[in-house]
């Protein structure tokens, strides 16, 4: 049964059909990456990440949020790219506490690429108290890539009054489904950038 649902969602995604709820607008990276927005970008030097994170740069540069909350710091490469795109933006990034399975990240590894450019916080994105930081203008959701996490994080982003929510790994059907479900019946427009793993929502 689970496999059937997964296959159906994959097929809908591949056919670029709206998955129930909120209709998605399907665009491509050239709709977001313009010469003006991409100037000064730090290009992520990892195969398969260059375009996705150039899009992140362009979106953050375009919207220039006052503050931004990232879920999933890891080494801080995305954090660095966002800090570079918006030097005046106050960035907070959440990750699981060091040595938490299954990632078992060392304290010295978490966020090290963007050290000094953001505030590191620790916790589980399902239980973290985001309200202490509200209002939050923009979010980058790149933590656990499953339905429950992405839906909860998106609901928190909506409550925070965000005008921009950027998602990585929305090529994963259950991640995209969570985005669509959480944003149904809201004022957000949702865009799936089809030649990448990125989607984003704005209002
Ligand atoms: C794909 S990596 C993030 C990549 C990072 N954004 C970048 O640009 O390089 C996912 C990160 O999410 C963290 N993570 C996974 N589940 C989490 C949770 N429930 N709460 C907070 N962080 C979580 C992991 O520890 C990992 O560092």
Annotated CATH topology: Rossmann fold
Q: How does the helix and strand content classify structurally?
A: alpha/beta
CATH architecture: 3-Layer(aba) Sandwich
Distance between the termini: 36 Å
Widest sheet: strand order?
A: 1-7-8-6-5-2-3-4
Encode the helix/strand succession as letters: HEHHHEHEEEHEHEE
Please give the largest β-sheet. Answer: 8 strands, mixed
Radius of gyration: 16 Å
What's the CATH H-level superfamily name?
Answer: Vaccinia Virus protein VP39
Report the mean per-residue pLDDT as an integer.
92
- Percentage of residues in strands: 15-25%
Tally of helical runs: 7
* Domain module tally: 1
- This entry's quaternary arrangement is single chain
Q: What's the CATH class, please?
A: Alpha Beta
Describe this entry's structure for a reader.
By secondary structure, the protein is an alpha/beta fold. It has one domain: Vaccinia Virus protein VP39 (Rossmann fold, 3-Layer(aba) Sandwich), CATH 3.40.50.150. Helix content is 33%, strand content 17%. It has 7 helices and 8 strands, in the order αβαααβαβββαβαββ. It has helices spanning 2-14, 29-32, 35-38, 50-63, 77-85, 147-159, 173-183, and strands at residues 25-27, 67-71, 90-95, 119-122, 138-141, 164-167, 189-193, 199-202. An 8-stranded mixed sheet has the order 1-7-8-6-5-2-3-4, with helices on both faces. Helix 1 (2-14) crosses helix 7 (173-183), helix 4 runs parallel beside helix 5 (77-85) and helix 6 (147-159) packs parallel to helix 7. It is globular, with a radius of gyration of 16 Å. The structure holds S-adenosylmethionine. Residues 71-75, 77-78, 94-96, 103, 105, 124-126, 142-144, 149 line the site of S-adenosylmethionine.
């Amino acid at each position: 049964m689970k496999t059937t649902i997964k296959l159906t969602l994959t097929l809908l995604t591949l056919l670029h059909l709206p998955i129930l709820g909120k209709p998605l607008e399907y665009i491509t990276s050239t709709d977001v990456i313009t010469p003006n927005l991409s100037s000064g970008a730090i290009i992520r030097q990892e195969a398969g990440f260059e375009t996705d994170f150039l899009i992140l740069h362009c979106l953050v540069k375009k919207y220039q949020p006052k503050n931004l909350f990232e879920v999933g710091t890891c080494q801080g490469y995305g954090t660095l790219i966002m800090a570079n795109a918006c030097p005046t933006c106050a960035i907070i990034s959440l990750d699981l506490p060091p040595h938490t399975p299954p990632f078992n990240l060392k304290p010295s590894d978490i966020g090290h690429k963007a050290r000094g450019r953001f505030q590191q916080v620790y916790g589980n994105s399902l239980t973290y108290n985001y309200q202490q930081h509200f209002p939050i203008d923009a979010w980058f959701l790149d933590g656990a890539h499953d339905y429950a996490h992405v839906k909860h994080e998106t609901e928190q982003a909506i409550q925070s009054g965000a005008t921009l929510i950027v998602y990585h790994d929305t090529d994963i059907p259950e991640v995209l489904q969570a985005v669509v479900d959480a944003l149904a019946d809201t004022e957000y427009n949702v865009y799936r950038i089809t030649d990448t793993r990125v989607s984003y929502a704005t209002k």
